[in-house]
Amino acid sequence: MNIEKKLAEKTIEALHSLYGATIEKVVFEKTNPDFVGDLTLVVFNFLKISKKKPEETATEIGNFLKTHIAEVADFNVVKGFLNLVIDNSFWLNYFKFINGKPFINDTLAENAPTVMVEYSSPNTNKPLHLGHVRNNLLGYSVAEILKAAGNKVIKVNLVNDRGIHICKSMLAWQKWGNGETPESSGMKGDHLVGKYYVEFDKNYKLQIADCKLKGLSDEEAEKQAPLMIEAQEMLLKWEAGDKEVRTLWEMMNSWVYKGFEATYKMMGVNFDKTYYESNTYILGKNIIDDGLAKGVLKRRADNSIYIDLTPDGLDEKTLLRGDGTSVYMTQDLGTAVQRAEETPFDKLIYTVGNEQDYHFKVLFLILKKLGYKWADGLFHLSYGMVELPEGKMKSREGTVVDADDLMKVMVETAAATTKELGKHEGLSDAEAEKLFYTIGMGALKYFILKVDPKKKMLFNPAESIDFNGNTAPFIQFNYVRIQALLRKAGEGWDFHDIDVFTHNITLLPKEKELIIKLYNFNATLQQAAIEYSPAVIANYVYELAKEYSQYYHDTPILKEHQKDLVLFRLQLSKIIGNAIRSAMQLLGIEVPDRM
User: Check: CATH 3.40.1080.10 for 403-586?
Assistant: First the structure.
C-alpha cells in the first residue's frame, strides 16, 4: 500500500496530459507541520514546462490528482508547494492491512546484497572504554538496520592483537608483574593487562625525562629510552616466532579475550566472525611483495616499502618498515583481501572514529591501485569522538572510562531511579534486577545512538536515565503502558473481525497522525539504512512514543462507551507497541513488559 508511488505515477500522467511533458521521476515529501496536508509536491521544477506561475501550476496538478485518485480528499497550494490531504479511508485500510503483520521482515531475497559490517576492533593491551561503547553500539545497530532493510549482513570484529602497543603491556608485566594473574588479583583479564599498559607509559615518561636531561632532543629521547628499545626488540622477536615471547603473548591475550567476552555479553552485541591481526599481517606482507613486483609500491634506501600518493593529493605512505616489521596499514590490507576472498561482499563498512579518516582514504586508494575491483564497495562509517564533561580520554594515562564501569553505573543508576519512582513494585527480585538492567542499558544505548554518528558527542550518564524527555526510559515506559492497557482489557475483546469494528470509525486527528507514523516505519528504516544512521530510528521511535503518550492522556480507551471505538483504540495501541518494540530492537534495546 504505497500511496507515494501511486501519486507519483499519476503526477507524471498529469504533467503529460496538462503540458505535454514527459517526466521520469516525481518525488513527494511529508507536508510541513505548519501546513494542512499529508504529502507535498514541490512544483518549481515544472514551471519551465507549464509556463505558468507556481500557484497556477500547483492548482492544475492538484485538480488532476483529486479527480483521478480517490484517496486524495483535498489539496491546498502555498506558493509552489502542493499539499495533498489523503482521505481517512486510505489510512483505515492501511491500519487493517498491517494488523498482525511484523514491522521487520526477516525473509531475505535470493539476490539480497551482502554487506559486511566491522565494529569494535579492540586492542589487546587494554579494556574496552567509552569510545568503544559508541563504536560497538553504532556498528551493531547499523548491522541490524541493514539486515532489516533487506541485506545479508555479516558482523565482524578485527582484534588488534599484535604490535608495539601489545608489547608494551607484555614488557611491563614481565618487569613489574611478579606473576600477577586475573585469579590472583581478582581483576578482569583485560583490566589487568591495561594496568600494565599504563605502568609502561609511566616508566617510559620517566626515562624520556632522564634522556632529555642528558641533552637529547624530544624525538631522540623517545626513540632511545631503554623501555622503547626493549619493546621494539620484543616485537621483532614476536614476528620471528620467539617461543618465550609468543607464550607470554598467548597467555596475556587469553586473559583479555575472556574479559572482552564478558563485556560484549553485558553490552548485548555479537559477531558472526572474528579476525585477528596476528594472522592477517602476514597476508598483508605478501600483498606488499606483489605490489612491489607490479611497480605500484617502491622501496627506499633504508629498505622500507612505501607508496607515493602525492599525485592523488595525499602523502607517501610507509607500508613496511626498514627492519621488515609491519605497520597498521599492512594488516589492514591483508584483512581486506582475506575477507573479500572468503566472503565476496557488495559492501564492507568499517565502523571507526573520524580520527582515522585519512587512514581509510589511503587504505581504499591503495587497494584500488593494486587492482582490487571490490575496493569500490569499501566504506568508512566515520563517527565523532565521545567526550566527557572533563574532556578527552587517554588510555595510556589511565584517564579512560572503562566500559564495564560505565555499564555498572548505568544499571545502578537505573535501579536507584526506578526504586525512587516505585516502578519496580510488584516484581520479584529477579524481575526487578532484569528491569534495572534493561532500563540502564537501554538508557546508555539510546543516549549514544540518538546522536548523528558524524557528530562529536558529550556523554552525561545522569541525563540519560529520565522517564521524561527524549530518553529510552520514556519510550520503554510508554511500551509498558500499552502492555498494561492490553492486560487490563483482558481476554474479552475480539480483535479478529477488524473489518467490522473499523466500518463506522471516524478517525480523530491524533489517530490519523499515529497511523501515518506507523505507515512511515518502513520509509524511516530505509532512510536509516541509506544514511547508516541509528539516529533516524531513535528520532522516529521517540516521536511515536511521544505522540502516543499524548493520545493516551487525551483520549478515552477502556472508558469509551462505543464498543467499536474501544476495539479500534486497543488495536491501535497494540500495533504502536509492536512498532516501538521493533524500532528499539534495531537499536539493540530491549523493552520490558512491566514496570
Answer: no
